[in-house]
Hints:
The chain is α/β, with parallel strands linked by helices. 37% of the residues lie in helices and 18% in strands. Helix 5 packs parallel to helix 8 (232-247).
Amino acid sequence: MTTRTAHVRAARAPAARAELDLIIPAFNEERRIGATLAAISEEATASDLSLSLLVVDNGCVDATAEVVALARDAAVRVEIISCRTRGKGAAVRAGILHATAPFVGYCDADQSTPPSAIRPGIDLLRSGFEVVIGSRRCTGAGYEVPQGTMRRLGSLAFRTMASPLSGPITDTQCGFKLFHSPVAKDLFSTSRLDGFAFDVEVLARARERGFRMIELPIQWTDSPESSFRPLVDGVKSFRELREVRRSIAGPSDQGAF
Length: 257
């Protein structure tokens, strides 16, 4: 078994199952993934969080797997699995279906959402909410480093088109979301989109099913090295919204909020 497909576990990982499996989809992230794993591990230690990290290799051709392997001395368990189907949605789905903890979630590899958001997200799950949605636009949220003009305009257009499906959610595309594990497995086992619009499909399905959702304000740092390509991926995402409309009977405005 190669390093790329092998499961990598931390040497000092606790024997007990973690409360949260946090998934990090990765495509050629050798330059950023190490710092992200270290930052989340430090936050887990400082905040006494019971979590494990699951990196999903989404067709990397760089040294991402080797960098993740070095995290075996981290304070939390680290595992890497391979997802051959390309696309962020496909990678997150693979991680969700592989997870075993009571809570599961995902975040980006670039620390655009600070690790300090994990604790309040878990607290909301413990309080009874079934889906916690990181938001850069709800009350209390903001940008430490703002998006560029093209990204802002594209995001505005995307939100306008997605709102009939997502309802009152202010930010469907923030890369930080947490779920009760049975809820996540239900949503992702029936999801179909592999690209960047997968969040809209999942949240629309959650709203349709009446799951309890809440937005968590995030202090976002936009990454100049984002793998999202505004022109190529943006056009594809708009096309994917049409697929969501066809696959989901439009939920009413009286969703889970």
